[in-house]
Design a protein that fits this description.
The structure holds 2 protein chains of 2 kinds. Chain A is an all-alpha fold. Chain A has one domain. Chain A is built from 12 helices and 4 strands, in the order ββαααααααααααββα. In chain A, the strands form 2 sheets. A two-stranded antiparallel ribbon of chain A has the order 1-2. In chain A, strands 3-4 form a two-stranded antiparallel ribbon. In chain A, α6 crosses α7. The longest helix of chain A has 32 residues. Chain B is mainly alpha-helical. In chain B, α2 packs antiparallel against α5, α3 packs antiparallel against α4 and α11 packs antiparallel against α13. In chain B, a hairpin with a 6-residue loop joins β1 and β2. Classes of the chains: A mainly alpha, B mainly alpha. Chains A and B meet through α2, α3, α4, α5 and α12 of A and α3, α4, β2, α14 and α15 of B.
């Protein structure tokens, strides 16, 4: 097993994959959250400002999903094959959701008609909600494990994906994104729209905390194996503690007007949540509930050591490049939204 | 219908629909770089108008390209799980490289391209345009590399056997520069340039016919015509080189392209024809020994035919492949004739007098599109029954867990959604073309944006570096 700085390549690539997924959840998370709350904004001008707040960046954010998909395909092809064929139906709905979200943003501004715009507002909002829910549903099932056969392919009934635990994870994901999106919009707006979003942000914090608590309680009572890691490694308890602190910090920062810190706190919350899931699931990429021997791990799903090495080199070259121009784009559009003739 | 046919139909449908858009983005990207470069160099407002007009159309095309492109990345996993496991080591790395080196570049700078006019200097904006164009070119590199590896695998070895078998990289650069990569990439790039260039020609020809925006349409047309002529001619050589690679590495495909059955005989080249697969006979207009000559510069030398391969190791849809291939070539020849004739008229200063020719250009936008589609269909169907040539059969590449009903569900879903997208795309494209380029010099008609809405919010604080005007 080839290693780099004491960790073998497969673990490194798992970390890279995790970082990309986390980046996707943070970046597209606020786009999706903004979309999910879109219909709660009543005025045409408010909706335009909200759309233009994500306008120049949402496409770049979605790229993280593409990179994540490529990272899984290249590094853990067995997991890529198993996950997407298993979640066939929810994933197709997710993809169609992505299509509609994208074109709704793009098409809405192209016609002045009221009906046209209202239609795309609804499409945009519903698509964002469906994307968030299906992402959460799939995450819940990955955490829980699904039924895999000896060829490491799904052999169960896809309706079993709609179990209580996964549905709760789906709702929590939606709540998390709505909170995150509202905070982002608070950061980007002024005056009355800002006040409205500020109130919404506080409500979504409560929505998120409630659904998170219910999911956690349910996990502790009915899915105890998802707590094994934290029981065995008491020091790791620092992670949930940090997460609670990060959540608690959000309303505090909002109150004193430090929106950027509130946004960072909610981004940290997303990362810590994913880290918790990853720690619980590790070293499994997809756990087989029916026969643990058929589980997909980061070892038995991995590409060859040679490919892993190539991928890590690609990541080492690519990451600084992507980070540089992503920051440049965000910096260019920093500050409150100002509409001009190029806006949506 | 069985899962294999359904999954193939779905893949073909989703990729064919997707492939309307990326070539347009690449080709338009090239002209955007030219137009904006001219604006930067000359300071002539006209070029700014042209650039801004085409960026709006670029945004529309790019949006649908992205929306339909994401499907493609995941369709390998959803419908072709066995394939994904088999080639993940190789194909996956190309896709990952595409995501990080190309797509991220393109999508990142797209925001500045579309929304950045008033936020960055004109030089930074031009830089963003170049980056978006390069990003789309890089995308093509990795996608063509991945596909070329399926056509002419190299730099790998097979590990395991039966269901566990998979290809692993032994030499990354040999994988990237497999025998067909470079020639096919150039062929695809030029085809993409032509798709975008002919869109620009079409729109401007229409303006000229309608007597609208003449001061902009005529120079735009001439610039695009130069590019169209150059690339149409270059495509002749690039196409020939691609065919030569097929001759050397995929003889069964080459035989199918010309409907050449005899296992070892002098091969003809057809201009038009029809293949009777059952009786192994082609009727049509032909150049005797033409294929022999094109591949070996000798009318008398034999070429391997379809019968040299076992029936289950050669393509079966010979007539379809033959027709698609010949449609592509026909269109290529037509574009050469059309652009050369138009260039000659332009040289004589008579170009815009010929209304019929302008009408031809209005409709010629379909030429590269049809050639792109038929060319790819010929390439992909000609590779059958293999998904990775000589290594893995398409019928063995499926997801075993996905049922026919599930594929019917997603196929119907995509059909409905894509038809809707196509209608909306054509409607909005037409609307933007009708609206035409606007003069950014005067505040009154600054944009449809100001007319369509409440007064623009004016927050002058923090407005940095407005463009030259």
């Amino acid at each position: 097993m080839e290693t780099f700085l004491g960790l073998d390549y497969n673990v490194w690539w798992y970390l890279v994959f995790g970082a990309v997924i986390s980046g996707y959840a943070i970046l597209d998370g606020f786009d999706l959250g903004a979309g999910a709350l879109h219909l709660l904004l009543n005025k045409e001008l408010s909706r335009r400002i909200a759309l233009n707040a994500i306008g120049p960046v949402w496409d770049g954010n979605e790229v993280w999903l593409v990179i994540g998909g490529g990272a899984l395909f290249a590094g853990f092809p067995v997991a890529y094959a198993a996950i997407f064929s298993a979640f066939y139906v929810p994933f197709m709905i997710f993809l169609v959701g992505l299509i509609f979200r994208g074109v709704a943003i793009e098409f809405r501004s192209k016609e002045p008609g009221l009906l046209w715009r209202k239609t795309w507002d609804i499409v945009y909002c519903v698509a964002s909600i469906i994307i968030s829910l299906s992402l959460g549903l799939m995450l819940g099932n990955v955490a829980l494990g699904i039924s895999l056969n000896e060829q490491k392919e799904f052999n169960g009934d896809w309706l079993s994906f709609f179990n209580f635990f996964s549905i709760m994870v789906a709702i929590t994901t939606l709540a998390l994104f709505m909170m995150h999106g509202a905070i982002y919009l608070v950061m980007k707006t002024e005056n009355r729209l800002y006040t409205k979003l500020y109130i919404l942000a506080r409500q979504f914090i409560i929505f998120f905390v409630l659904s998170f608590v219910i999911t956690t309680l349910y996990t502790l009572l009915y899915v105890p194996h998802l707590g094994d890691f934290f029981r065995e490694h008491p020091t790791s308890f620092i992670i949930p503690v940090l997460m609670v602190l990060a959540i608690a910090n959000i309303p505090r920062q909002l109150k004193i007007g430090k929106y950027r810190y509130a946004f960072i706190s909610s981004s940290v919350t997303i990362s810590l949540l994913l880290i918790m899931v990853a720690l619980e699931v590790f070293p499994y990429l997809l756990y087989s509930r029916t026969n643990p021997d058929n589980s997909i791990t980061i070892q038995n799903a991995a590409a060859s050591a040679k490919t892993m090495k190539i991928l890590l080199i690609i990541a080492l070259i690519g990451t600084p490049l992507v980070a540089t121009y992503t920051s440049f784009v965000f910096w260019t559009f920093k500050g409150k939204v100002k509409l001009d003739e190029t806006s949506y | 219908m069985d899962v294999e046919i359904l999954a193939r139909i779905q893949f073909a449908f989703t990729i064919a629909f997707h492939y309307i858009y990326p070539p347009l983005s690449i080709g338009l990207g090239l002209l955007l770089v030219v137009f904006e470069g001219l604006y930067l160099k000359t300071g002539n407002k006209m070029y700014e108008q042209i650039t801004r007009f085409w960026i709006k159309i670029f945004a529309l095309i790019f949006g649908i390209g992205v929306a339909t492109g994401i499907i493609m990345e995941f369709e390998f996993g959803t419908n072709w799980a066995t394939y994904s496991k088999y080639v993940g080591d190789i194909f996956g790395s190309a896709l990952a490289a595409e995501g990080i080196f190309a797509f991220a570049l393109e999508s990142g700078f797209l925001g500045i391209l579309i929304f950045g006019w008033n936020r960055v200097s004109s030089k930074v904006h031009f830089f963003s345009t170049v980056m978006v164009f390069l990003g789309s070119m890089f995308s093509a590199i990795w996608i063509v590399v991945a596909n070329s590896w399926q056509q002419t695998p190299a730099g790998y070895h097979i590990v395991g056997s039966g269901m566990e078998a998979r290809a692993e990289i032994t030499d990354f650069w040999a994988m990237v520069f497999n025998p067909s990569s470079v020639d096919r990439l150039i062929h695809v790039w030029i085809a993409a340039f032509l798709a975008g260039i002919f869109l620009v020609l079409s729109v401007n020809a229409w303006y000229i016919l309608k007597g609208k925006h003449l001061e902009i349409a005529k120079p735009s047309f001439k610039i695009a015509l130069v590019a169209a002529t150059v690339f149409s001619l270059l495509q002749l050589f690039a196409g020939h080189r691609s065919a030569d690679v097929v001759y050397k590495h995929q003889p069964a495909k080459l035989a199918a392209l010309e409907g050449h059955y005899d296992s070892m005989a002098v091969a003809d080249m057809f201009l038009l024809g029809y293949v009777d697969n059952k009786n192994q006979k082609v009727t049509g207009i032909k150049i005797p020994g033409g294929l022999s000559f094109l591949t070996q510069f000798d009318f008398k030398k034999p070429v391997k035919g379809l019968n040299a391969f076992k029936p289950d190791e050669r393509p079966s849809q010979v007539n379809t492949i033959f027709q698609f291939y010949h449609i592509m070539i026909g269109i290529g020849m037509f574009m050469i004739a059309l652009t050369l004739y138009a260039s000659w008229l332009a040289f004589k200063n008579k170009l815009f007098e010929k209304r019929w020719l302008m009408w031809v250009f209005v409709w010629a936008v379909l030429g590269p599109q049809i050639a792109n589609q038929t060319g790819w269909f010929a390439a992909e169907m000609g590779r059958q029954p293999w998904v990775v040539y000589g290594l893995l059969k398409t019928s063995d590449a499926l997801s075993k867990t996905v049922t026919a009903n599930q594929v019917v569900f997603s196929l119907i879903l995509f059909t409905v959604v894509y038809m809707l997208l196509l209608v909306l795309f054509l409607y909005l494209l037409n609307k933007k073309i009708q609206h035409g380029p606007v003069d950014y010099g005067t505040k009154e008609d600054i944009d449809e944006g100001s007319k369509r809405d409440n007064p623009i919010l004016d927050h002058s604080n923090g407005q940095n570096a407005a463009p030259a005007h």
